[in-house]
Amino acid sequence: GELVSSKTKCIDNAVKNYDSAMQQFLPKNPIGFQSELRFRYGSNLSIFSGSRTAHEVCAISAHRRRKEKLLDERRTLHRANMTREAALVCGKSIPIGNDPFGRSYWVFSAEPTSLFVCHVDSKPEGGMSTKKQWHRFCMPEEIASVMVCLGKVPLCETLKEVFPEAAKRVNDRSWSTLLFGRSLPQASKRAQVLSPSKEPKTAAEEQVDYGAPFVEDEDVLVESANGKFLWDAVVVDVSKDLETERVNGYLVHYKKWSSRFDQWVVPDRVVEPNKVNLEVQEEVLQDFNTASDVAPPMLERMFAYKFLNAKKRARSTPASKSEIFESTFTRPSASRDEQLLGLLKGAILIIEAALPRGSVGSSTNRSWNPQAAALWRNLVKDAQGPETLMRCVLLLEDVISPDWLHAQAAQLYSAVPKQWRAMGEASLPAIALRISVLDRCLKYQQKKKKHIN
């Protein structure tokens, strides 16, 4: 008999949500579908069982499910990458991910071009606690070999985004050539590097250059990144080379600092806290404390700086320069934001110390009494971000009398956000702008007027 097909309304017609890639084999009109049936019947091919709508729904549903699964995986990966990047900005390190064997992969802010792999041995010899082994890969070809070994796991895609140079080595397949070239150097090149009278150093001799390796929980002194200071620290973990078992890095924790400032350092920056090194550390800190009385050049250009030690200031006890400028000094290898935060702390403290007498209510029963002023200074020194420091700046603006502001103060303050908006949009550049405006508007030379009855 004649093959008959009828046009049936698809349930997805209302939303027009077709996936053409999955439905190319299905005609979209009755004439085309009738022709398809006749072709299959004449060629002895299998004919669709059921309605055309049912096949479309199955194809759309299966493909939609695959798309949702792929999107969920990409969202999870993107969320993990954002969390890791935000943690690095805050100084905290979290793993990039884990492979099927339980190894975790890390990138630390101290060495952003190196990949660290942590392997946890759940059954170490001679003990019940777990033991961690750290492996460091610093060259692009080494990281590329790790990517190749991982295969097609999601972690490999993350590593390619973090290490684009290593991903390039994987794509052009040059990583294996570079690794073989390192393991099998040519005899001619080796002869040019080594003189006949000097033999190559062994791994044990190279280890002696830095002395005996330090162990976990051992007290050490760590040289700062600029080479000017020695900081008290404790060894948290040790990284060794896979082939030579030579120590190539220490994870150290700086004493009296948060654990989020822990960092990996090379062995030549770690020294023993012996008598000589402790004397050097003390001498350097003494020189640093002596130099702390000198203001940073950026703060010396402030108008308030000229009246820092002037007479008739609102502050009951004169402020020492070391007390003000100690907040401008930051930790070793501080970021640009941390350095700017320290400078802004020093700037607002200079303005407060240079306020003329009468510009704020400094008596005991007034709002800016000595106890309130001391509490405000402690809040400035302990500020960890722009929100707290902006709150301190706005508070100081409120307690200053308008009589001690220049005539153009209203015009200058009209160019900056209102206080309620400034608190919601707190940032370091916004704080710098408000401090600059306040410094320009204050009458530091004006004297308190005497009231004659």
Q: How would you describe this structure to a colleague?
A:
This protein has helices at 30-42, 52-89, 140-150, 154-162, 164-172, 175-183, 187-193, 203-208, 275-291, 297-300, 321-325, 336-353, 370-381, 386-399, 409-413, 419-424, 428-441, and strands at 97-98, 104-108, 111-121, 131-137, 219-223, 230-240, 247-254, 263-265, 270-271. Helix 3 crosses helix 5 and helix 14 (386-399) packs parallel to helix 17 (428-441). It has 17 helices and nine strands. The longest helix has 38 residues, at 52-89. The chain is flat, with a radius of gyration of 34 Å. The strands form two sheets. A five-stranded antiparallel β-sheet has the order 8-7-6-5-9. Helix content is 43%, strand content 12%. It is an alpha+beta fold and 453 residues long. Residues 10-24 and 184-208 have low confidence and may be disordered.
Sum up the structure in keywords.
single chain; 453 residues; alpha+beta; 5-stranded antiparallel beta sheet; 4-stranded antiparallel beta sheet; 17 helices; 9 strands
Give a brief rundown of this model:
By secondary structure, the protein is an alpha+beta fold. It has helices at residues 30-42, 52-89, 140-150, 154-162, 164-172, 175-183, 187-193, 203-208, 275-291, 297-300, 321-325, 336-353, 370-381, 386-399, 409-413, 419-424, 428-441; strands at residues 97-98, 104-108, 111-121, 131-137, 219-223, 230-240, 247-254, 263-265, 270-271.
